[in-house]
Amino acid sequence: MVHPNEELLRKNYHAASEGNVQAVADRMADDIVWHAGGNNPFSGDYRGKEEVLGYLGRLAEETGGTLKNEPHDVLANDEHAVGLLRFSAERGDKSLDVRAAHIVHIRDGKVAEVWIFYEDQRIVDEFFS
Q: Which of the four CATH numbers 3.30.70.20, 3.30.2350.10, 2.40.110.10, 3.10.450.50 does domain 4-128 have?
């Protein structure tokens, strides 16, 4: 049996891959907090659906719609889920292909907080700078 929080995260990745922004937004808590580490123009904390969706929209725009989060595996319990991913994108003459982990806090069936970690943050920072 698949844990409900694993299913939630897998559905979110699928919706995002199809460009279904509304489905992704519907799975977010109103007070969601998204932590994007590193040292690049996208680094920082985004609070609330509007800021998070704006951040995700800017990422998609900046990469010309080439950004992909391909899940390798999803692990979950009653409060958290972890997505192990391949993150890839293109931007001008640059390309990016790294492994990433999303650590997700889930509250009342909604994504409440997200932390993003890359195998090599320096490469990601260079790509987006």
A: 3.10.450.50
pLDDT of res. 54: 96
- Report the C-alpha gap between 5 and 67 in whole angstroms: 24
**Residue bearing tokens 């509007």:** 50
Distance CA 67, CA 87 (A): 7
**Residue 19 to residues 31, 39, 44, 67, 107, Cα–Cα distance (Å):** 22, 27, 23, 11, 24
Q: CA 112 to CA 28: how far, in whole Å?
A: 6
Over residues 56-99, the pLDDT tens digits come to 999 999 999 899 999 999 999 999 999 999 999 999 999 999 99
What's the pLDDT score for residue 80? 97
pTM passes above 0.90? yes
